[in-house]
DNA-protecting protein DprA (Clostridium rhizosphaerae), 355 residues
Amino acid sequence: MIEHDIWFSTLKLSNQTKNNLIKYYKDPNNLWDALSQGDLVYKQLKNILIDSWDDKKINFIKDIIIKSNIKITTYNKENYPSKLRLYDDSPVVLYYYGNIDMLNTRTNVSIVGSRKNSIYGTNVTKLISKELAINDINIISGLAKGIDTYAHSTCIENDGFTCAVLGCGIDIIYPKENKILYEDMKFKGVILSEFPPGTQPYAYNFPIRNRIISQLSDLVIIVEAGIKSGSLITANLALEQGIDVMAVPGSIFSEQSKGCNKIIRDGAYPLTSIEDVFELLKTNYIHTGNNSYTLNPSEKKIHELINDSPIHIDDIIKIANIDIKQLYEVLFELQLKNEIMCLSGNYYVKNIKEI
């Protein structure tokens, strides 16, 4: 019964204890039956389990689930993400929207990073996400501002599959500005949360949800992260779980790259090209770039200004005498065509071509 799943998800017990209960009783229904019949193996938990049943709270959450058409899966159901079963602290109950089955059928890569992303971080995220999406690799992230948002949206734009793990109830859109992305993901991906519907995005929920982001993944990629970034929590959790971590190196002067540079120093794999990702995953890379393209006059003009030495965007504007909006469009197209790359601090440099 749905009431038992809701009750179990609201229990004030550690996930490890909940998992032990479910491994023994198979599902919350059986646990409640055993409790009602006085046949509880974990007798020290009897009062906690009984006192946790709150009709008003359970009915409130049930009403949200029914009205919002929220789906539920539990540890022993076939569509429960198989990777989560490997961990003692995985959530027993998950609330979700979308196609959760896809998490069990393809490779999953997490892309996370700073909410205060730079242009460099944005462009790197878009380039990585596009290649992964086109190569049928799922992208996992947290639907936060910044890097998470670009990872999800770029994946959808390229007809890929993406999963958002929330630090609040599945019915809460946070941040509000991601409402359109949230609605898109309900039909083109999956959104999931271990927190019961109605749970607000309290700060302490996000480190908790980060373990799910890493546990779902075959690889975790950190694009940008300050020294105190929550993304480093995800990276450290992944390393503890035996999951590979890659980080995008950045300027030593960039606050948003200090965390990435630190975890590379501490043993994370440096991400220097998209090929690095596929080599680590031991997956064939289908290159999606089109080498037959020609540069239009605007692209050719800017391309000729950029060489092997980094040049700042302000200098490009002065030399090229071009509108800033048009310049950003041209620079982005040149990056998509793998002609140039953006370095931290709005510097651009020509890409080295493969021999």
